Amino acid sequence: xxxxxxVASAPHIHGSLSTTKLMSDVIIALIxxxxxxxxxxxxxxxxxxxxxxxxxxxxxxxxxxxLVRGKQTITNLSAVVTGxxxxxxxxxxxxxxIVAVGALIAIGVAKMPFGGLGKNPFNPAIVAxxxxxxxxxxxxxxxxLPSTEGFVDAYSGATPLxxxxxxxxxxxxxxxxxxxxxxxxxxGNMAGSFGEVATLALLLGFAYLLVRRVITWHIPVSIFVTVxxxxxxxxxxxxxxxxxxxxxxxxxLLSGGVVxxxxxxxxxxxxxxxxxxxxxxxxxxxxxxxxxxRLWGSYPEGMSFAILIMNSVxxxxxxxxxxxxxxxxx
Amino acid sequence: MNTLIFTVVTLCVVxxxxxxxLYFVAQKFKVEEDPRIDDVEKxxxxxxxxxxxxxxxxxxxxxxVEQEDISSLYCSVGGAxxxxxxxxxxxxxxxxxxxxxxxxxxxxxxEKRPRTTTYAGTHSCAIAHSLYTGETNCAYGCLGYGxxxxxxxxxxxxxxxxxxxAEVDADKCTACGACVAACPKGIIELRKRWPKNRAIYVxxxxxxxxxxxxxxxxxxxxxxxxxxxxCEFGAITIENNLAFIDSTKxxxxxxxxxxxxxxAIKMIGLAPLPPKEKPTTETK
Amino acid sequence: MKTFPIGGVHPSDNKKxxxxxxxxxxxxxxxxxxxxxxxxxxxxxxxxxxGDTVKVGEKIAEATGFMSANIHxxxxxxxxxxxxxxxxxxxxxxxxxxxxxxxxxxxxIDLSTDLVKECNLSSAEIIAxxxxxxxxxxxxxxxxxxxxxxxxxxxxxxILIINGVECEPYLTSDYRTMLERGEELLVGTSILMKAxxxxxxxxGVENNKPDAIxxxxxxxxxxxxxxxxxxKTMYPQGGEKQLIAAVTGxxxxxxxxxxxxxxxxxxxxxxxxxxxxxxxxxxPLVQRVVTVTGxxxxxTKNLLTRFGTPVSALIEKCGGLPEGDNRVLNGGPMMGxxxxxxxxxxxKGCSGITxxxxxxxxRGEPSACIKCAKCVEACPMGLEPYLLAKQAKKKxxxxxxxxxxxxxxxxxxxxxxxxxxxxxxDYVRLGKQTVxxxxxxxxxxx
Lengths: 330, 284, 446
What we know:
The structure holds three protein chains of three kinds.
Chain A: E1 5-7, H1 19-41, H2 44-68, H3 78-88, H4 96-111, H5 124-135, H6 137-141, E2 143-144, E3 156-157, H7 160-170, H8 173-178, H9 182-187, H10 199-211, H11 218-238, H12 242-254, H13 258-265, H14 276-296, H15 303-320
Antiparallel strand pairs in A: 2-3
Helix pairs in contact in A: 1-3, 1-10, 2-3, 2-4, 3-4, 3-5, 4-5, 5-15, 10-13, 11-12, 11-13, 11-14, 14-15
Chain B: H1 2-28, H2 35-43, H3 56-66, H4 79-90, E1 100-104, E2 117-119, H5 125-131, H6 147-151, E3 157-160, E4 165-168, H7 178-182, E5 188-192, E6 199-202, H8 210-216, H9 226-230, E7 236-239, E8 242-245, H10 255-259, E9 265-268, H11 279-283
Antiparallel strand pairs in B: 1-5, 3-4, 6-9, 7-8
Helix pairs in contact in B: 2-3
Chain C: E1 23-25, E2 31-35, E3 45-46, E4 53-54, E5 59-62, E6 71-72, E7 77-86, E8 92-100, H1 123-132, H2 145-149, E9 159-163, H3 173-180, H4 182-195, E10 200-206, H5 210-220, E11 226-231, H6 240-248, E12 264-268, H7 269-281, E13 287-293, E14 301-306, H8 311-317, E15 326-330, E16 337-338, E17 352-357, H9 374-378, H10 385-393, H11 397-402, H12 413-417, H13 424-445
Helix pairs in contact in C: 1-4, 3-5, 4-7, 10-13
């Protein structure tokens, strides 16, 4: 019996997609932003990234081997993506041990206890970031100022969002808004977590993900539109000068983690809705919450909180928002 | 001080109001239920296996309390003792049922029933069965993907990796019937349970004609009828080229086992009959 | 260019292996086995017995009731058995075995190749002839054509759609038929238009077959009301509902609604040719074009094959099975049925034999669902395969019914696209079968 017939039901061929391929596409899409960060902040960025990715992969491998005792899952590269995103959510000059703690939270608390990839209700990188933000507020918000010479120096500066938060309390917002260097922010010339500053490079990554059909446009675009609309309305109420309104709107789109969050964090497959309609609802929710936290909350930045809150709504969205069935009304 | 008093008073008021609301709601939505249902439920094994046909043990408890005649209700997990206790408590006649055990009627081991194709699909009998007749040439035999194992709540049935067949652990089996319902090939039967789990049964369900069965499996029943001729109790019937031993009529005399040319009639917990040259001594 | 509105995938079509091969006639087999169930509906009833002699085209089994189809002898000879035989999946089915003696056709069948354009029959007469000839949908669904053409009371057909899409990868039998028998196809189409009393017919062809589109467009100039429409290539465009949506923009509502509810009647291109032969030449359905293809098949072919020819004979004719493990399919790689018994016969719905060998015969190892939503995106019916599969695993049949499982067309897009290699359709199909069973039982009770 050399020849045996193999029997399995249709379909008998499979497309070229695989989890590993999707994850490596996300990594590729993040490389331009990483490169810009290295250029802006120096080599420290790479150290943080390496520690973050290394720890995430190591923790997942160890947990899988000794606690779950299942097949090794690190080859699907999801731990690498988590590590990379976590790193990009940190200041470039953060102590490396904090990075390792973050990785432990991401993998050991937010991902593996739920059953690993695909079962975690919250985005692991976001959970870790928020944990670190609350546990180590000083280190997490001591942002290095952009520098192009080797390792970053110890100077730290306020992010544009922290600056505007301060200005809101002191009442000179208009002056600040008028002087924003929008173009500089676009290119990456601002203080912040090192992954979120290079807006142009992040948008390049977005385009790559769209072309490779890794994600659809629904989540990022609905976040952008909501943030822009909210900022524009708020600006129109606050300022008389249309130049200020447009500056204020652009500022909110480009500052903080809006682009990084919308393109790479909110679109995390596991924690985002399954239908396009659901994705739009989710994106609008994130945009609204972000702006509410930014304008009225005590934290200067609300992107990660907004994503975390909307993550918790995803099961509900999946339950009630169904795709349009073929043959039903459009 | 004022703050303290205010806090305490507020808490007390909230507590009293909540208690009142709870009390009236509980009164309003109170469901009158026979207290015996709870008692009967406690007497039942609590496996919630559904083997009785009711959704969980409480379902059966309700039925036992409500129905006048409970002879058609039976919990095979609890067995006769449990049913007697329940019947005594309720003052009704205890339902009687012979104890049973699940029996896998396929002897087509890897060795006796060669594989001719390889199934590469999802590891599930139901899915494989809806696709084709299986990896061997026998269209009736055990597929071995373990739908019965998954269905069993008592860890009493397993796939033997050596034979590729499902095997029942008679000591653990409660005859709830979950595996019988799960098997898409209808191989598993609930049969009368003899002391020490002794059993004689036809370990084959192939309805193919003799030659086709023989070609597919060396352990299959070919419907030759030899067993039928030796059975003194009318326990054996042959239909569609397949012998069947009625476990309620069989007396474990073992004559059929000795006659079966393919070994399709299986015997558990019994020694084979002594060789045949003895009839002279037996008649005396 | 148009296509259907929701979902779809792009498998590599690999039609290149057999598209240039002109239709060849397969040698007549010495023995054929003709199953009585070659169509959807009740199996036919045998009208011959062991020992009878039959000629090609002679009726050997009669339709059992309305939803059934006649079966004719594909070779001349003696009936040697009417008994249960294993089909392609090993299941015992009633089959008529005929031993061949020569090749003598029944009287009254026009075997000439001259084109007969004129048809003066009424709608009812045409349908009667189609019924007599035992024609069923030859795209694979095998729905009796006379049933499809009998428009129910109160409904009206507005458009006839001829399915020349052949979206199933690898297969080229419809493509070769359109190229080589274009005239017959068009006459068949006009006859079908007459049968359902419509003024307009559209032949839908995917744009990966530009020569077929060009050829048919050229020929269609000589026929009234027939339009050839190029469609954007997308699997599963050959699905009846998808094709109607692509051609007319109308969507057939969820079952039990039928295409006729949006005024459309769909017939396969090969079926239209069979209709031509039945009505104009009085020739019943006894053969069809079968593509034998696969990466490892030495000499792929499009073979005009008499029904009942063993599948193994076709594969032998094309160079045989390669060494090692093979997956042999009755149909194409997306929807074809796998076969365990290669001695089983070619039937009316068999548009191709696809062979997958070695690594391509095996499935990839499944991993955890990452909820990427690719299956939802790919589903042409707007269902949620990930959810349905999960519910089927949990045996949550009621929940599956609420999630419209009965709309599933089992096209396989979800499983094809799943990056985690999960056998979504295995579970979804099991759920669909179970839920359909539950619904049938419920309807029977009423």
